[in-house]
Amino acid sequence: MQVDFLIVGQGLAGSLLAQELRRRGRKVHVVDDGWKSASSQVAAGLMTPLTGRRFTLTKDYPELFAAAKERLTERGVFRSTQVYRMFVDEEQRGKGLKRTECRSCQPFIERVTSAQGELDPTLTDTFGGALMNGAWVDLPKLLADVRAELLADGSLTEAAFDPAEAVADAEGITWRALRAGAIVYCDGYKSAQRGPFKYLPWQPAKGEALTLRASVADKPYILNREGWALPLGQGVWRTGANWQWDQLDETPTEPQKEKFIRRFRGYFGAEVQVEVTAHVAGVRPCTSDNHPFMGTHPQQPRTHLFGGLGPRGTVWAPLMADEMASYLCEGRPLRPECNLTRFAYAG
């Protein structure tokens, strides 16, 4: 089989890049291990404008959010919603109030509350909070839909990928019975463990998430305080997350489950009964500077990387997939802060 691009991985990055390349008339083939190592299966798909302890807005967030909304609405997986970020102390509340004076932040801040119960009397928002305009993306539906499209025209092979099986020469890449003009690694944190892009400063982090039924009324917004809780309707919630830097695997752990349940219950003033219906884990492909890795291997001109989307992948991925496809197909330059050439090759 002859194709233009062999894509390794059908998580968020691989799915959206495959879509963009196909939109440009390129023939692609995707190899994926059945999402066994896809952090996209675990991620909540949240778009929270102001994040972190310092309550900051991701660089270029307005542009990234607008592109994500346009492209993911086309796929039927974009859900506009509000996020209520409950402050943990007076210092964080002060940062929240300061952000209301920031012009780029203002479109994403609906209101800042000043006291517990001002927005909802059932919540434990002692220091108030910020009600923000955000979104969540139905990642399971997105990945399943793209997979169905790829399978329908024979463009997907379900297999574990070994970089040693991909043989490069001057004209292209050979992998098993497939011949490709180029290969694009979109396999998340696996590229930090093996393969041609292991040299980059990856900082993968394990995360876990629960799905549970709770004896608490549904809320019209996502709850956020040192973690998140996404209401899915009819008493069903999804909640996470944590950051673990040493145990990089897809195995859920009992201590994290108990931690998430305690934190979820802590969002509410009254006692909450919960029943856990699912518990999943995955590894985020984070990077040392919190920007994606995009571009071409410095010594292998037909070997490319589109990854490192990290915890804000749903915001980064749609626009970056478009830019990566333009780079591959039309030679357009990548933005410097995402181009992997910002790091010296240490091979």
Task: Kindly describe this structure.
With 347 residues, the chain is of the alpha+beta class. It has two domains: 2-41 and 140-202 and 289-342, 3-Layer(bba) Sandwich (FAD/NAD(P)-binding domain); 82-134 and 203-284, D-Amino Acid Oxidase, subunit A, domain 2 (D-Amino Acid Oxidase, Chain A, domain 2, 2-Layer Sandwich). The chain is 24% helix and 31% strand. Helix 1 (12-23) crosses helix 4 (139-152), helix 1 (12-23) runs parallel beside helix 7 (313-330) and helix 2 crosses helix 7. The mean pLDDT is 93.
- What is the N-to-C order of secondary-structure elements (H for helix, E for strand)? EHEEEEHEHEEHEEEEHEEEEHEEEH
CATH architecture type of the largest domain? 3-Layer(bba) Sandwich
- Helix/strand-derived category reads alpha+beta
The Rg value, from CA coordinates, equals 21 Å
Based on DSSP secondary structure assignment, what is the total number of beta strands?
19
Distance between the termini: 31 Å
Query: CATH superfamily name of the largest domain?
Result: FAD/NAD(P)-binding domain
The low-pLDDT segments are none
Query: How many domains make up the coordinates?
Result: 2
Q: Roughly what is the average pLDDT, rounded to an integer?
A: 93
- Strand content bin: 25-35%
What characteristic shape results from the CA principal axes? globular
Here the CATH topology of the largest domain equals FAD/NAD(P)-binding domain
| Highest CATH level, the class of the largest domain | Alpha Beta
Number of helices: 7
**How would you characterize the largest beta sheet?**
9 strands, mixed
> What percent of the residues sit in helical stretches (DSSP H or I)?
10-25%
